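Example 3.2
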Amino acid sequence: MINKVLTISIAAYNMEQYIRQTLDSLIDEEIIDELEIFVVDDGGTDRTLEIAQEYAEKYPQSIFPIHKENGGYGSTVNYSIAHATGKYFKLLDGDDWFETENLKKLIEQLRMINSDIVITTYFQCIENGPKKENKLTDGYALNTDIAICEIEIRRVFGMWGITYKTEILKKCDMQLPLHCLYTDQIFSTIPFAEANTIRFVDCAVYCYRIGRDGQSVGKEARIKHIGDNIKVCDFLLDFYEAQKKCSNVNIRYIKRRIVTYIRWLVKTYLLMPISEEVMMGIATYDRNLMVKSRDVYNMLSNVNTYKKFGIYMHIIRIFGYGKIALLFSRLILPKDGIKNWA
């Protein structure tokens, strides 16, 4: 039995249209034996599981189709972490894929290293369009272990660029909430509390498909499921306050990671047409945030970190989210809501 270098968890709810491309991107004779691939069919109703079983027949020591009762994205990650035997662990959504040649390069690195977290660049791939590389590694020393508590925080990292050492995931005993969207934000944050070292590898592995109908990051879905956004933010705020109390050495990064996601939540409100109801929603959450974590609240309006957004939050707070704040928002933002605001 060959020891597995990398466990890959594929969340595959009704993904028959994409799952072949996803699995094909992982199959290369040089590395397939070193992969442990869980294809977790989360109560789907299409042929996703049947297709995954076809691949499992060809690669029974590497591909493991799982059918389970629907529990949401978090439940698929929880299952895979609990059963993972690979040295490292990485997520892959069922409609995304890996660059095969770059995956081979990553596996070659993972065989030799013992870093707690590995960060790679990734591609954003527009549906039926071009792809753009996101250079998460820019500005960092490459291919060397760095203490997380010592890194300059140039950006925060999402699941597309993260590969965790499996023992770190098991150590933090993370259980993602069930039947809740956006739990990848929790996955991308909590393990940093248990990790010591991070390594940056300039190798674009993950191909993140954007522009597909029905994606949870689409405008309509973000507005519809804003309650899930709030639930995840509150989960992370509780985690942050607990880590602050125990003086976690990585608290700077954890704080920045959480504030960045809360900014995304506020932007979700601003995707809607600017109205009194929108301002009331922002006000209610922002005031609750001040009670939950004053230093996170303060950082959200940090102009040096968040520039235009920081200025915006500072101004609407000054005017108490009221009529003047509403007029200001209508003056600088599109009436039908923002489309994109970096």
